[in-house]
Amino acid sequence: MNKLLQGAVVIAALIGLAASPSQIYADDSFKDLTGVQEKEKIESLHARGLVQGMTGDEFRPQAALTASQGVTMIVKSLKLNLDGIAFIKKPEAKDVFTRVANDAWYAQPFIVAHYNELDIPASIEPGRTLTREEFIHYLVQGIERTGAYPLPKLYIQIKDEASITLSYQGTIERALVYKVTALDPEGNIHPKDPISRAEAAAMIYEAVAFVESHQQVKSQP
Length: 221
Hints:
By secondary structure, this protein is mostly helical.
C-alpha cells in the first residue's frame, strides 16, 4: 500500500472514531420516518439501543402501541432491573400475569416492571393497544423508580380532566410537571385515545432526558 493510500485509510478511521452516535447509525435509520414530527427523537433513541423497530428498517410510527411494546420500552429505556431484590425462586411471568407466557419475548420486561411496582394489571392482554393515560401512568411510575425528584407545586388546568381515570390523575399531572408530555393547544390530554408508537417514543425520549439531567446534577460535587 503506498503512503498516500495509507494516509487516506488512517484519516477515514479517525473520522469514524470521532463520529457522533447519530452519524454512526446514519445508515441504520428507519425508512418510514420521513415527515414524522418525532423523527429525530426516535432515531436518537434507536442509536442508543433504547427502542427498536417493527422490522429492521421500519419503525411504523403511526401504528398503535401495544402493552408488550410499551412495557418493554419503559423498562429498557429507564434501565429498570431486579438488582437488589431477593427471590426464593427465579421469578416467572405466570407468577404474576395471567396472559403473559413465560417464554414470550416481552416476559422479562413485564417481570421487571411488576417488581419495580409499576401498576400493571395482572390480567393485561399484551397485544392490546395502550391508551395515552395508561402509557403515561406506567412511564411516570418508571421514572420515579429511578430516584426522588423535586415536584414544584404547580396547578395545570386540564380541560378534559373528567375523562381521566381517577387512579391515573396524579401520574398524569406529574408527567406534565416533568414535561414528559404536554397538553394539546386546546388544553386537553386525550386520556382515552390510543397512543401511537411515535408518540410513545417521544415521551420516552423526554423521560430519559429528564432522568439523566437530574442524575447529572446529583453527581456534581
